[in-house]
Amino acid sequence: xxxxxxxxxxxxxxxxxxxxxxxxxxxxxxxxxxxxxxxxxxxxxxxxxxxxxxxxxxxxxxxxxxxxxxxxxxxxxxxxxxxxxxxxxxxxxxxxxxxxxxxxxxxxxxxxxxxxxxxxxxxxxxxxxxxxxxxxxxxxxxxxxxxxxxxxxxxxxxxxxxxxxxxxxxxxxxxxxxxxxxxxxxxxxxxxxxxxxxxxxxxxxxxxxxxxxxxxxxxxxxxxxxxxxxxxxxxxxxxxxxxxxxxxxxxxxxxxxxxxxxxxxxxxxxxxxxxxxxxxxxxxxxxxxxxxxxxxxxxxxxxxxxxxxxxxxxxxxxxxxxxxxxxxxxxxxxxxxxxxxxxxxxxxxxxxxxxxxxxxxxxxxxxxxxxxxxxxxxxxxxxxxxxxxxxxxxxxxxxxxxxxxxxxxxxxxxxxxxxxxxxxxxxxxxxxxxxxxxxxxxxxxxxxxxxxxxxxxxxxxxxxxxxxxxxxxxxxxxxxxxxxxxxxxxxxxxxxxxxxxxxxxxxxxxxxxxxxxxxxxxxxxxxxxxxxxxxxxxxxxxxxxxxxxxxxxxxxxxxxxxxxxxxxxxxxxxxxxxxxxxxxxxxxxxxxxxxxxxxxxxxxxxxxxxxxxxxxxxxxxxxxxxxxxxxxxxxxxxxxxxxxxxxxxxxxxxxxxxxxxxxxxxxxxxxxxxxxxxxxxxxxxxxxxxxxxxxxxxxxxxxxxxxxxxxxxxxxxxxxxxxxxxxxxxxxxxxxxxxxxxxxxxxxxxxxxxxxxxxxxxxxxxxxxxxxxxxxxxxxxxxxxxxxxxxxxxxxxxxxxxxxxxxxxxxxxxxxxxxxxxxxxxxxxxxxxxxxxx
Length: 838
Hints:
By secondary structure, the chain is mainly beta. It folds into two domains: about 1-225 and about 260-835, TonB-dependent receptor, beta-barrel domain (Maltoporin, Chain A), CATH 2.40.170; about 230-260, no CATH class. It has six helices and 46 strands. The strands form ten sheets. It has a 22-stranded antiparallel β-barrel. Strand 19 (about 350-365) and strand 20 (about 370-390) form a beta hairpin. The protein is globular. It holds the Pfam family Plug. One of its GO terms (biological process) is iron ion transport. Keywords: Cell outer membrane, Ion transport, Iron, Iron transport, Membrane, Receptor, Signal, TonB box, Transmembrane, Transmembrane beta strand, Transport.
């Protein structure tokens, strides 16, 4: 009864004290002061046809450009606060996307791994987690589709899909916008600035151009000043009590300091721009051509060492506390450390360098009864990601530069009908390429625990790992609807997807020389060039595999009136199988299979009370099979040395039951309430992978462990929010808009099996989730006030995010039995935004 009451209370608090799916919906598209807060009539295009959101029998949240702007941030994770059962977090140690929707998602930066949420920008697909961390600027709207979308979006949509639509050039008009933003973080008084500029220029009667640019900079809310914690044990020194330990440690402290120099960490420095052209010589033909450029010179992503000490949580077998690394300094996760490594090979102060450019051409042909569309795009992305993962200023435990070159291509043709009768359809075929060359230079300082006299070798050399994957995908889809009666409609869709991956992996040393894959700095040629021959590697894998799937959906909806509709659906989705980028043996480099799911859903959409109240709800039941999960396996290199690795495998099944509610209510023309609420009960039906006992903190041979009692990652039980917006006309013709919004999210696991052994036997162990590896429960309170001049030419906003300065972990990654590193969400941020439209 106590637990039930707690759940009921949590649900009530969630609904009453959390932010809305339309967190900043202070504006409608209508003109006139009395219509600023009206409920919008939104048309969505993510299902390959233009359909009114309220007529679409899919759980979808549409966020307009004004709503996005009023979140005062421009990365994809902002969408977490805008829709129920959406949980997008940063990858630990990277500016990339983790998590997903309705209990999907993973915390892995593998460049060969497909995401479980599909993301498209102007219908160009981004299916890799690193590429998905796009800059949200110059957006027209964002459509968030929850549940599998395997028919029209394709693979990697078991959790849902997010369709971004950017603003297009407008023929015959000259106008522009400029917006500046300045803010400050409470943790270290560091600053952040944003500058956005857009310009629309007519180039004759049938051609127009649009330029949109964003410069996003911040100093970062972490500080490299974590104090030393007790007796420091240099990893290259004998342990306390052994001969020479004191003298070695005194020398090591000066040579390898363990306290930072006080600079700000985790800063952002991104310049991104898009140049767009629209040519419309007639009503029959429209062409949209876009050139994209991204230059990212942000800091190395900061992290906190949140490794439990030996006397905490029953002991979890981590080795880092033995060396004297203290975890979070003085209880402040924003006071942390960062490695001093700064060489041509691994340059931690040099940060993360990302360059991307793309060209996209969408052509539309309007016939009498049909619309044909040809979508073509190419995108190249180069990365040099110098990363340190431990939250310590010590040089070096594990520093690496993860460097990749990725080329993507999409070519899609589709045909949509526009019949006057009861039947209409959309059909198409698509071809995709996604080729990546990946090179890792690793400085393996953690070997110093065991290295003895060879310590300096690991200080001055770099391990090389090479991965290459070429992927080709083909798809054919058809989706049609038939009006059985004036009120009853049947929709059915089918998609055939074939995915072919060619994989190459070079790693580890040879039997004759276990360190043959190490180089010195003198041998370094460049960040994307492997200086070693294939014969220098003991693990050489070349393989290819095809992954195919048939996905479908079947929907029946009934229109009670023009304003009330209910629907029932069954839909499937899949995440393509693949190869583990980090694999180190022939066994672990074998491909894993595709993950699949099936979703049953009942939903309702209603516009009531003369259009002043909108209620959308969905109840779903989803089963997942062939779950793609990380597991830790032991292996021997070519020389017979023992290692362990984390690789993706197919283990287990799970079932998710959930409920989602979205509400918008406008009781007066000047007051609006937006709310969303999500509830999720997601449990493993089975999950018993082979696992390395040493990672659990006990000795033993590789065996199966039953992890089904652990919580499924990214499955908070409750989430949701509420937003209050008030609009005030001023006598001068200007206006004020006030907004207060709150967002609540329950705690949740992040990784599939970071467990520790807490008793019992190996045959019947007591396993609990490792400490400090969870998303923490948090409530974020935000507010803003905006003054707009008459005709909305000028706007000035004062805003605050996380006003209660809540401290919460939003990402974590335990590294075997070595250490655990985490990241925390932004502290309180206060800012000023000024905009001018001309």
